[in-house]
Amino acid sequence: MKYYLAIDLGGTNVRVAVVSPQGDVVEEIKRPSRASEGPTIVLDNIIDMAQSLKLLSDCLAIGMGLPGPVDTKKGCITLSTNLNGFTGFPVAAYLKERLNLPVYMDNDANVAGLAEAVFGAGKGNDVVYYLTHSTGIGGALVVNGKVVSGRKGYAGEIGNIIIDRDRASYAHINNLKVGAVENEASGSAMVRKAKQELDDSIVSAGEIFKLAEEGNDKAQHLLDEMTLDMGMLLQAIAHVCDPDIFVMGGGVTKSKDKYWPQMIAHYSDLVHDDMRDTPFVQAELAEPGIIGAAALCMAMEKGN
Amino acid sequence: MKYYLAIDLGGTNVRVAVVSPQGDVVEEIKRPSRASEGPTIVLDNIIDMAQSLKLLSDCLAIGMGLPGPVDTKKGCITLSTNLNGFTGFPVAAYLKERLNLPVYMDNDANVAGLAEAVFGAGKGNDVVYYLTHSTGIGGALVVNGKVVSGRKGYAGEIGNIIIDRDRASYAHINNLKVGAVENEASGSAMVRKAKQELDDSIVSAGEIFKLAEEGNDKAQHLLDEMTLDMGMLLQAIAHVCDPDIFVMGGGVTKSKDKYWPQMIAHYSDLVHDDMRDTPFVQAELAEPGIIGAAALCMAMEKGN
After folding, report:
1. How far apart are CA A251 and CA A190, in angstroms?
2. Which sequence spans correspond to the domains of chain A?
3. What is the tens place of the pLDDT at every residue in B119-145?
4. pLDDT average, residue stretch B224-248
5. For all residues of chain B together, what is the average pLDDT?
6. CATH code linked to domain A124-282
7. CA of B76, closest CA in chain A: separation in Å?
8. Which of A82-86, A205-209, B58-62 has the lowest average pLDDT?
9. Which residues contact B44 (CB under 8 A, 6 or more apart)?
């Protein structure tokens, strides 16, 4: 039996697993990622985890998901914010030398999107657009089972797409552009706006959905604005790649029933008539990071 | 020797050619397309042209470019405006039955983009974004030598991307949305604005570039607005697919020296720092429609 070694490296924890070609996790270890201790400590920890797996010798390749834009050709993180010292560090080369297997890596949103496209809610579709609507907003374009990562791994950095150039600047908070959708329609943007306009004690998007449901006009106004901003984002994406399906995950989508109908109505208003019936479905995998890391290997073995 | 039969069907003329795997046109015929006479007349004319080519029997497959969004799976035009009666007509099946060869078709912008990506200015790059800046604005996403057409062929219909939702409606002119970039920054949009704001006798974008160069403030203002609108479009595209290169063609790009520097400066202002050096180059092929139609066959033979 041939397996893949899948690594899901986050800012808090790292998981290393053996995954079958069918996408089943057959062996798995989880440890703290030790993100602040620098790349050699973090990677030696991962290598130690891998070497403790019984099926390591049956693995054909290593797939890995990491936070931040990833240069998939060079095998490094282009700009690391959650993993200390990782910007430009040759992660793929380091693992390849010590574990003697080919290494394929991409950023965590792309990896999760690939998992959903190949094994999850997008299965069976040629062009899948995966979108995370969470604290931030990210995405992944998957075409025929392969992620489109782009020149320096910035494909899918859709949180920076400008949906209205006449908004306030949040340059003091992050490096996104004025009117970038993540600063206007993400979970954290909704909470920021609700604190200002509704109640300083609000800490989650869920509270805003609840207030709107109870008839609070200001909360409803926030939802109206957010769903239109999301519609603008979705229409831009759709005119670039006309996906067979949009798969959406992330914390905010737990309240999908409370905003998707309005968001999809805005999307439909803003696209060509034939595009109105593009399906929107919720992400469905419990461990997209691990499954997707394995799917990276499978995609690369298919070649171009 | 193995060849491809390439068909470039436009509203005025149709060209049918035999193309080598290296992209060389070895035999070619051109005739009026008879676009108003309905699909069977138009296609029988094409079949007659094909059968008069000496090398037809050496052709492995048929590639075809047509105007309008194309459903590449069904092999038909989704919405035909230039070819009478073609909406939904089974073009691929019709040609396949009579010429007994597999048929691959896509819309003309996608086909031209593929040609530039494989044989032209984008050659050697994994992810190429091709954009036509002309009377209208269209595009094509080419990944590893294959066009991403999408669910119903609307990938690349970027003229409908909204770059500013606070613009005037042109619902009486076309079916694009309010603030769609084609209604704000295309050659025809520039002329429309110049007629209103400058001089009713203006008929081409070239005149506006000339007036701006001569120091006309209103003409310069139009260019400032157009280049920012184009920058907004380019930033949306780049955050979706992070192309290795933007290839731009179309009539307006004949004046590239007069607006690209400003357009690229706006693009650079609106993207993540690492994306600022994305290269922009001009399209270079004389016959992208024919070469691209052949390239469709080559792409499909590579499989998924």
Report:
1. 13
2. 3-114+286-301, 124-282
3. 999 999 999 999 999 989 999 999 999
4. 98
5. 95
6. 3.30.420.40
7. 14
8. A82-86
9. none
Structure tokens at B210: 């000339």
A3 CA: distance to closest CA in chain B (Å): 22
From B127, B164, B272, residue closest to A160, measured CB to CB: B272
Per-position DSSP letters for A204-264, written without gaps between them:
-HHHHHHHHHTT-HHHHHHHHHHHHHHHHHHHHHHHHH--SEEEEESGGGGGHHHHHHHHH
DSSP A79: S
Rounded to an integer, what is the distance from CA A44 to the centroid of its chain? 25
Question: What is the C-alpha separation between B60 and A55, in angstroms, rounded?
Answer: 46
Calculate mean pLDDT across residues B297-302. Answer: 84
- Interface contact B78-A152, CB threshold 8 A: no
ipTM: 0.92
- How far separated are the first and last CA of chain B, in Å rounded? 25
**Do B253 and B137 form a contact (C-beta atoms < 8 A)?**
no
Written as one letter, the residue type at B130 is: Y
Copy the structure tokens of residue A196.
Answer: 């200002």
Query: Which residues have CB under 8 Å from A1's CB, separation 6+?
Result: A20, A58
End-to-end CA distance of chain A: 25
Return the DSSP state at B3: E
Q: What is the pLDDT of residues A213-271, one digit of tens each?
A: 999 999 999 999 999 999 999 999 999 999 999 999 999 999 999 999 999 999 999 99
DSSP secondary structure string, B56-116?
Answer: GGGEEEEEEEESS-EETTTTEESS-SSSTT-BT--HHHHHHHHH-S-EEEEEHHHHHHHHH
Nearest CA in chain A to B167: A164
Q: Which of B149, B107, B148 has its CA nearest to residue B126? A: B148
DSSP string, A118-160: HTSTTTT-SEEEEEEESSSEEEEEEETTEE---SSS-TT-GGG
Chain A, 60 to 119: residues with Cβ < 8 Å from chain B are 69, 78-79
Cβ within 8 Å of residue B16, ≥6 positions away? B5, B6, B7, B8, B28, B29, B30, B46, B49, B50, B53
Q: How far apart are CA A249 and CA A43, in angstroms?
A: 29
> Quick check: do B3-114+286-301 and B124-282 share a fold?
yes
Give the count of beta carbons closer than 10 Å to the beta carbon of residue B24. 12
Q: Domain A3-114+286-301 has what CATH class?
A: alpha beta
Are the beta carbons of B236 and A166 separated by less than 8 Å?
no
